[in-house]
Structure formats: C-alpha cells, structure tokens
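tmp note - Methylenetetrahydrofolate--tRNA-(uracil-5-)-methyltransferase TrmFO
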Amino acid sequence: MSEPLHIIGGGMAGSEAAWAAANLGVPVVLHEMRPQVATFAHRTGDFAEMVCSNSFRSDDHERNAVGLIHWEMRQAGSLVMEMAQRHRLPAGGALAVDRDPFARSVTERLKSHPLISTSYEEITDLPSSGHWIIATGPLTSPALAEAIRAATGAEALAFFDAIAPIVYTESIDMSVAWLQSRYDKGETEDEQKAYINCPMTREQYEAFIDALLAAEKTEFHEGETAAYFDGCLPIEVMAERGRETLRHGPMKPVGLTNAHQPDRKSYAVVQLRRDNKLGTLHNIVGFQTKMKYGAQTSVFKLIPGLENASFARLGGIHRNTFINSPTLLDDRMRLKSRPHLRFAGQITGVEGYVESAAMGLLAGRMAAHQLLGRDLPPPPPQTAMGALVTHITGGAEAKSFQPMNVNFGLFPPIDAKGGRKGRKDRYKAYTDRAKEAFTEWLS
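out:
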C-alpha cells in the first residue's frame, strides 16, 4: 500500500482520476467542496455532475476524434464511459446521457471503492507536500485560483462557457415540430428520431434574428472580457457576426425533412435534444446565450413549436478559468515549479466533458505509477489522448493558448502516399493508427 493520492475536485476529471488510481492499487482521498460550498452552475453534491449539455458528442470511433477518445477511455477502464453507456439516451450518432442518474451512479461507484475516501471541504491553498491532482475545473474557487496564480507567477486565462436552455417536452407543439435525427442517423428508430425539430420560414428566421439582436443582454462584470471559446459562442454573438451565421450553424436546415410538410424545405431549423431518460426535458442545441432571463423567454417563444414552451432552465454564460499549460506543465501534467502537483481537466485548457475526463484518467494513471515506483509516459501523439496532452503541455503556442477540443488537427499527419485520401478514408486511417498505438501503450 503506497501513500495516498489526493485529488481536488469531483467533476469529470477528478472522478476519472480517482477511479484510475484506485484501480491500480493506490489509496485516494477525493476532496470536493460541494455541497458545503456551492457554485452558480451546479445543483447537487454529486460527482461528475453535468452542468451544461448532456452530450458526450460523437460516439463514432472510426471516423471522429471524439468517438476515438471514447474508445480509448473504454479500453483504459473509464468509469465515466461505463456509466454513460449505462444511462445512455437516444441521440443519433452521439452519446447523450440521462444526467442525474449518471452522476448518482458515478458517485455511488466512487464511494463504494475500498481505496477511495471522500472529504467535503474547500481547499483554499496549494499543498506544500504529498501527491496531489488539481482537477477543480472551470469553476475553480476564487481562493484556490488566487493560490494557483501566486504559485505560478502567471495570470490565469479566462473565457466564457455556456449553459443551454432546457424545455419541458410536454410544452412543445408537435403539430409544428417533428422527430428526426439529421440525415436519419442511427441504427434504431429511437436513434433516428432522437431530436425534436422546429422549422422556420425565411420571414420567421429574420424576425427571430431581429429580436435576438435587440434583446437585453447580461452585462459583464468589471475586469471580464468576452474572450469566448468558439465552440460555445452565445447565439447573439453568432448573430452579430452576420445574419446568416446561425442558419449555417446550430440552425442549419440540412439533412432534415419536415414530417408535416415534406415538400417544403425549411429556411432554418432549431433542434432540441432529449435531456433525460424519461424524455420530459429537451435542451435547445447550441443555444447558449447571455440574454437576460426575461428576454430569453420572449425570444425563444418566437421559434415555431415553442410559442407556449415552459422552461426548466434558461441559458447562461459563465467565466471559466484555465492555466497556461504549455508554459506551466511538463509532459506528465506536473507543475514544473512544484512537481508534486498535477493538473487535470478543463483547468488545463482542454474543452469538453470527454476531454476533461480523459485528462483526469491520464493524470490518475500517471500519479499512481509514480507512487508505485514506476514511470508512465504519456500515450503516443498518434492517439487521441496523446494528441491532446501533447497539445496542452507544449504543442500549443503559449502566447495564444486557448481551450481546445480533441480533433484530428492535433494528430501527426497521416502519410498519404499514392494521392490524397478522401476525408473519410483519412479519418479512418487516423483512428486505425491510434488504436494500434494506444493498445501498445496500455500493455
């Protein structure tokens, strides 16, 4: 039995790190400030609570980088992936989950592990000794964030992440809306009808854009800047970039046929994705916003099918904190100036549930190996996890470092001898190469 590994933060990264280390035989103390200290985004004290979308995005492990990281996590015994599969909801080709049962299951599994103990308190300073993983996520408490800044001598960077609004399904007018996944994607009827679609004519779309641009927005606090992560742009910011931007983004009408008027092509379509297993809640896909609550209800009710919508939660934008990892961390995710401290999850500058959990899994395995007297190098850069950790620990340009989702642009290029491969063939070549390399690394 080795000395314990301490993990600060019970989100996706912290939960995955605790599970990975404990399963390698290392005792873990998981420190979580909730529910004693709340955040504006969390509702419970459960570990791995999903506060934004309920989707882990694409599950296609053959031609999608996100699906590939799902595959790698499953091969490595991921708790998050296991519980996501257990509480999976129909979502076309995506991996969406029933968020509350998912978080409860993760919590129960962690608390029942004989080598994991939990401690509910706020950590306000960086520990000077022991072995620690800091996985406090984008909502790191102000006191700990200040301690990190003091220790690194670098200002933490900030961007704004988004919470999509959630609608009560029974309040959606299904005589206007219809069920269909884009391009009928999915192997079962549930998958092929995983989304509710609300169609718009050109006139309705223009009226919606006018209302969106005119709506009252929440002001930024003093000292904040609107350095949005492009994957989470508020809809009003997208609209300000051009009136057609939303129609080519979250409101694109392609791959959809109106079941009520199959011969009429929609000018724009708003999609809602199931948010719980009962199907009583749907979130509006891509509709993060900084509109004030009253304005949100007025603007969203202009969407055909949502005229009488009731909202279980309205949208919001919040400040996320992350460190300049390419400058501060080594390739084992350790703070160079204090190598007994590792960082994992969104605070390192990865973006998304899956990426955060994957970096937690990796940090937990690395820390456990060190405590057991071994050294575990990061996965090869040809793998999804390896490409991501390489990016945040040195592959990115430090001066312009911004949060990043996993994508094939982070991977070493594929040798395309004999002519340029088609996109699908190239993506399959990336995943085939990654699986071989990851399997070898795991062994």
